Structures are given as C-alpha cells and as structure tokens.
Amino acid sequence: xxxxxxxxxxxxxxxxxxxxxxxxxxxxxxxxxxxxxxxxxxxxxxxxxxxxxxxxxxxxxxxxxxxxxxxxxxxxxxxxxxxxxxxxxxxxxxxxxxxxxxxxxxxxxxxxxxxxxxxxxxxxxxxxxxxxxxxxxxxxxxxxxxxxxxxxxxxxxxxxxxxxxxxxxxxxxxxxxxxxxxxxxxxxxxxxxxxxxxxxxxxxxxxxxxxxxxxxxxxxxxxxxxxxxxxxxxxxxxxxxxxxxxxxxxxxxxxxxxxxxxxxxxxxxxxxxxxxxxxxxxxxxxxxxxxxxxxxxxxxxxxxxxxxxxxxxxxxxxxxxxxxxxxxxxxxxxxxxxxxxxxxxxxxxxxxxxxxxxxxxxxxxxxxxxxxxxxxxxxxxxxxxxxxxxxxxxxxxxxxxxxxxxxxxxxxxxxxxxxxxxxxxxxxxxxxxxxxxxxxxxxxxxxxxxxxxxxxxxxxxxxxxx
Length: 466
Ligand SMILES: [Zn+2]
What we know:
- It is built from 17 helices and 16 strands.
- By secondary structure, it is α/β, with parallel strands linked by helices.
- It has 2 domains: 23-84 and 386-435, Urease, subunit C, domain 1 (Roll), CATH 2.30.40; 86-375, TIM Barrel, CATH 3.20.20.140.
- The strands form 3 sheets. It has an 8-stranded mixed beta sheet with strand order 3-2-1-4-13-14-15-16, covered by helices on one side. The protein has a 4-stranded parallel beta sheet with strand order 5-6-7-8. Strands 9-10-11-12 form a 4-stranded parallel beta sheet.
- It is globular, with a radius of gyration of 23 Å.
- Bound molecules: zinc ion.
- Zinc ion (ZN) binds at residues 90, 92, 239, 275, 327-328.
C-alpha cells in the first residue's frame, strides 16, 4: 500500500513536470546563430544552449530550448553569434607583464639582453599572479575559454586561473639552468609531481609536465618528464623545431632532428603537445603521427621572430591534429588574440603555398575549437557545443558594420569578426564576462599593478649599467 502511494506520487510528479513541459536549467544563452562544431557541424539560426551543473544540457532552436527548459538566468543576444569558447594550445601567460619590453631584435639578443635578465630579477610568485590575472582577463575578453601555459610558479598560475573561473592546461617548466622558481631540473621535476598531485581531477585546471625544449634539457630529464606525464596520464608540453638553428644544432649534437631524437630516447609522452614544429620534416611528421602528438601552431610568433612558417596543410594531411597559440606576449607576439591567430594562420598558409584554397576558414575555426581540444586530449570535454560537454561558450556581436552582410559563418569568424566583438563568456557554466565586463576579475586593480610592476622591471634592467 505504502509502496503504491509512493509510485502514484512519483507518477503524479512526472505528470506535472510533463504538463509544464519544462526541466530546470541554470542558464540559457540564445543568439542569432549558433555554430556548434559538433560532428555534423550544425549551424542553428535563432538557436540556444541550455546549461546545468556546468554542463551543456541541450543545443537547438531557441523555441525548442525555451519550451523544454526553464532557467534561473538568461543571456539573450539576438544580434550575436554563439560559438564554443576558443582553445589556446600554447602560451606563456605571465609574460604579459613583459609586453613590448624589446621588439624587432634578433631572437638570441632578445632572450639574452632582455628576457632572461628581466625574468631572473623579477619573476616571483607575486609577479606571476598579477601577470596571469592580466593575461586571463585579456584572453577571456577575446573569446578564449581554455588556455595552455608553460611558465614558472605554475601552482600560482593555477590558483589565479581557478579564482578567475578560467579553464587551463598548465605546464610547470623544467629547464636545464637555474630558473626563477627551481634551481635544477631535479627540483623542478619533484615540484611538478607535487603540482600534478594537487591539481589532477580539478574541474578547471589540467596539470601538465613542461620540459622547455630538447636543447635546454639533458636526456635523463627529458625521459623523466615524459615518464611522469604518462604515469599520471597528463599532457607533456614542449617546444620542438621552432627555429632552423635548433634543428641544425640537434643534427650536430645528436645526429637527429629534435623530433627523432625525442622519439629515439623515449621522451615523447602519450599526450604530447609540440609547440611550433616549423622545421619538422616529412620523417618528423611520420614519427609524430606514430606517437599521436598534437601540434600547437603559433603564426604570429613564427612571423614576428622570423622563425619560418610550418606547412600546416602537410600536418593535417598526415592526420596530426593542429591547434593555435599566440605564444608569449613579450616579443613573440604582443597579445593573446586568437581571432588574429585564426586570420593569420589561414593567410600565411595561402601566401606560402600560392594556393587560396589552403587552410579554408572552416578548417581554421576547427583548429581554434574542436581540433585544439583534440591536441590537448580534451575533445570529449570541450571544443564543441554538445549535450554532456562542459559549458564553455562565447557570444560575438554581429551588430557591427563589418558584420554586414553575412553569408558563411566560418568566413565571418575567421576573416571578419574581431576579438573586440566578443560580448559574453561562459566557462564551466558560469558567466565570467557579461557584455564585455569581466565579472571575476578587477580591471582597475590589475591595471594599477601592471603599471607598478612595469616600473620595477624597467629599473631592474638599468641596475649595474653605467
Ligand atoms: Zn612558447
């Protein structure tokens, strides 16, 4: 009898819910057009996304979503596009505080005269925290919802990133000379293991191992770093074949290209992300494909430092996933603008192959979203708008003169729309930017600190000079 009552009561409850026809959602975001990047690459006019518990509940025409869900909060942007948040696969966030310190100088001079001394004298946990806050604010406002970092004091980077509600893959740097945080690679390796233990399983932060490059680490360190990444199932982030000099030196020293050398010594982890790959040849691409690596392509950086231009079409033909990265803002680039990286990636591919069909807009937008997620081994969680995935999305204003008239959405996203058109940002179901206003960071305080730390950097570079 009692059981019967319970069954009847639950049936009644289901009926009432069905009568209202609505399920609860935390947030509904609607827009003029939703670009899903799902397997069918659906583009939905007058579409919406329902979000609950940090995940996407449903994606579809606005009328259907509104009928099926009742949300506590809504963002309606009838003059905007709604897309997955952009995925940055390679950067050095806290270098934002060294922005514009030295431009238009050769790479070696830039490193030895400016960046290394400035880092040695200034990079502290405090510097990294403020630099990361500044970077995260800029990244969010330009539509990035996941970024990939390689820097020092990565535990502080993680704390600040989580506080701001941003998603990131954070690699603690391991390098063969005394760094601002750890004096030896052994110390850095031990700290990395701790860092992974602390952050693994976090909803927003994915810890990673980041040996700087093959030429800045010895064989034992590279092998230990790779083994650690595999032991914990986390990504390995490393710079590979960025410049021609790096390749020539590797050939002289190891009789092999950086990729082949790393493969030979067993230092390519299962989830490896190679940054740059400008000078990787056919055999390197074969090796890379066998290891299942992902490539982080950094067009601005490769152009600005005169490193060369990687044949991205060839990587894609080999089945190697390619993502985009703005690299560091201290000289390799001067900002974290993924819209600029998309535009450049497409145009330099066309310009260097004399082929206007190279890297079409739809492919480039994939690189900035779902393929970028694949590079990081996170394609099940982010990179597209699909039920069950983590709710990372952005709205981009179409109420701009450059947004009329419209034909192809990918052409708009890659060639026309600007980072400054980004209106709202949602990460893990939380609104972090609303109508271009950061909600989780304090701009005035960050700008004041950036100015204060700039003065410190400037003074430190004058020390000891006549
Ligand atoms: Zn880099």
